[in-house]
Amino acid sequence: MQKSIFTSESLGAVHVAIIMDGNGRWATKRGLPRVEGHRAGVATVRRIVEHAPRVGIKRLTLYAFSSDNWRRPRKEVEALFWLLRAYLRLESQRLRQRGVCLKVIGRRDRLPRVVVREIEKVETLTAQGDSLHLRVAIDYSSRDAITRALAKLTSGCSLSEPLSIELLRHRISDELTGQSGEVDLLIRTGGEKRLSDFLLWESAYAELLFTDRMWPDFDASDLEAAVEEFRRRSRRFGALPVPTTASLVATRERAQ
Ligand code: FPP
Question: I need a surface site. Which of 171, 174, 177, 207 has the fewest CB within 10 A?
Fold first, then answer.
């Protein structure tokens, strides 16, 4: 296998989030049922999870099932949960061996019991993993997550002594980004250019990258190209320009 030009040092602990869109269209274009697109999408998930640490990605969040996806036909929803459960069951040992720590974000109270049990098993099995922190968003809605964080933080607060806005903002931020931090790069495949209620708070300063590539076709070279593009961007966080990651690496290499 070709050695990657990226190193984790050159990227730091970059957090990449992906909206995996285009499975249905990929299948329809081939005259296949939509579920075949989702099946091919699972194969892409395997490839990308395997490749991510090689390009310096330490944290990866994948949007697998949004809270709005319940509106899809029952057969498609069932097929998606069947695939998710199979992924968790069949991949758990491989994930552990590769040092991947998998966590699921989103609501669990509406998921089939068998899926929740599989999630709990894989979370326990991979808890010590440190090469990649993988989060899979299932029955996830960012607005819902923000609202729940706010409700949790303010329950028990009296109206006469409210938390200061500044403190509340910090606490919400801790609640939402405590485990995986802010998103650095948000990728959406499938040609659409929207966020679809995904990690809205966490992506406040994320670099956005939209690609026409359908998720089943997205491969290691697309991930490398996305990371390369991210390295070229100049992130300012509202302040004056700071050097790009790529220019920082180049400066360090010249100095060596
Ligand atoms: C969007 O494509 C994709 C989904 C709603 C499901 C994503 C799920 C997977 C890739 C498989 C399971 C995931 C894991 C982590 C094992 P779409 O159906 O909206 O495509 P379309 O826009 O072309 O119709």
Answer: 174
Q: Is 21 in the pocket of ligand 1 (CB under 6 A)?
A: yes
Catalytic center residues: 21, 69
CA angle 145, 147, 164 (to 5 degrees): 120
Following DSSP, what letter does each residue of 141-157 receive, concatenated?
-HHHHHHHHHHHHHTT-
User: What Cα–Cα distance (Å) separates residue 1 from each residue in 43, 98, 214, 217?
Assistant: 19, 17, 25, 20
Q: How far is the CA of 41 from the centre of ligand 1 (A)?
A: 7
User: What does the domain layout of the chain look like in residue ranges?
Assistant: 14-146+180-255
| Buried b / exposed e along 84-114 (16+ C-beta atoms within 10 A) | bbebbeebbeebbebebbbbbbbeeeebeee
pTM, two decimal places: 0.90
Kindly report the protein residue whose alpha carbon is nearest to atom 7 of ligand 1: 64
Phi, psi of 139 (to 5 degrees): 45, 50
In this predicted model, what pLDDT tens digit does every residue of 57-74 receive, in sequence order?
A: 999 999 999 999 999 999
Q: Is 88 in the pocket of ligand 1 (CB under 6 A)?
A: no
Lowest mean pLDDT of 15-29, 76-90, 148-162, name the range.
148-162
- Is any ligand 1 atom within 6 A of the Cβ of residue 27? no
Is the distance from the beta carbon of residue 216 to the nearest atom of ligand 1 less than 6 Å?
A: no
Torsion of CA 23, 26, 32, 38, to 10 degrees: -20
Q: Which CATH number fits domain 14-146+180-255: 3.40.1180.10, 3.40.50.720, 3.20.20.210, 1.10.10.10?
A: 3.40.1180.10
What region does 5 belong to: left with phi over 0, alpha with psi -120 to 50, or beta? Answer: alpha
Task: Output the CA angle 195-44-129, nearest 5 degrees.
Answer: 90
